[in-house]
Design goal:
By secondary structure, the chain is of the alpha/beta class. The protein has helices spanning 16-23, 42-49, 62-72, 107-116, 133-139, 150-158, 197-208, 216-223, 227-233, 246-260, and strands spanning 12-13, 32-36, 54-58, 77-79, 96-101, 124-132, 159-167, 172-173, 180-187. The chain has a seven-stranded mixed beta sheet. Helix 3 (62-72) links the parallel strand 3 and strand 4. Helix 7 (197-208) crosses helix 10.
Length: 261
């Protein structure tokens, strides 16, 4: 009997209806799959039924990695490591579809890493990921709403995001104290070109550092009151960070990069 480790944020998805729903979102036959945090392999079993070309799984817990090895033998390539330390773009020869019941304590860090690891092409085809509902609400939030913030802006930069469903605690073992949400991410054909994604992280961090205050202070901090930027982007400094839409933040990042070049 394998027990979930609280320190690793482990909650194993056990509801068969949800497991089946996850693997029916898109066609994965003959596709290369990466599963992050497979745990005891419940979702892995359902993925295998779809006959993918190859499955890579990343499992940090050594005991669980050994369990997966015993259960699935040579059907998987098991990587016993921390997902945050892996360079995914060098791991695969072609783009992959990613499934993940992400550890809630590092889920936003993982997603941000995957989106901002390159200013160019993404290393994956699609992401099918589970988050704490509160985090998912921030990812899919539209501007001018209370949930809108850095995570919304970064997530929607290169990706279209769709909420599939909410998932109740009863679907997991052990039961978490919160609801979860399943999100589907697909790459945008065109996205706003930013030289260094770290600059988007910096601009959004400075602006949302005081999300309830007017944007005059963060703007001056980044642009030293540059009137040309204000005029070009038609920004009202009396607004608050949540009042600026996605594109305005991408344009602000572009302007910030031009100042530094």
């Amino acid at each position: 009997m394998i027990k979930a480790k609280k320190s690793l944020g482990q909650n194993f998805l056990v509801d068969r209806n949800i497991l089946e729903k996850i693997t029916n979102i898109i066609q994965i036959t003959d596709e290369t799959i990466l599963e992050v945090g497979p745990g005891t392999g419940n979702l892995t079993s359902f993925i295998l039924k779809k006959k993918p070309k190859k499955i890579f799984v990343v499992e940090k817990d050594e005991k669980l990695a050994n369990h997966l090895e015993e259960t699935f033998k040579d059907q998987l390539t098991i990587i016993n490591d921390d997902i945050l330390k892996i360079n995914e773009s060098s791991l695969f020869e072609s783009k992959v579809t990613v499934f993940g019941n992400l550890p809630y304590n590092i889920s936003t860090e993982i997603l941000s890493k995957w989106i901002t690891n390159s200013s160019k092409d993404l290393w994956f085809n699609n992401l099918i990921l589970m988050f704490q509902k509160e985090v998912a609400d921030r990812i899919i939030a539209k501007f001018d709403t209370s949930n809108y913030g850095r995570l919304s802006i970064i997530s929607n930069w290169k990706l279209n995001v769709e909420k599939i469903c909410d998932i109740k605690p009863d679907c997991f073992s052990p039961k978490p104290k919160i609801d979860s949400s399943l999100l589907f991410f697909s790459p945008k054909k065109d996205f706003f070109k930013i030289k260094n994604p770290k600059n988007l992280e910096k601009v959004t961090r400075v602006f949302f550092n005081h999300r309830r205050k007017m944007i005059k202070k963060p703007f001056n901090q980044l642009f030293n009151g540059n009137q040309k930027v204000l005029d070009e982007l038609n920004i009202n400094l009396n607004l608050r960070p949540q009042n600026l839409d996605f594109n305005t933040y991408y344009k602000l990042t572009e302007a910030y990069e031009k100042l530094g070049s």
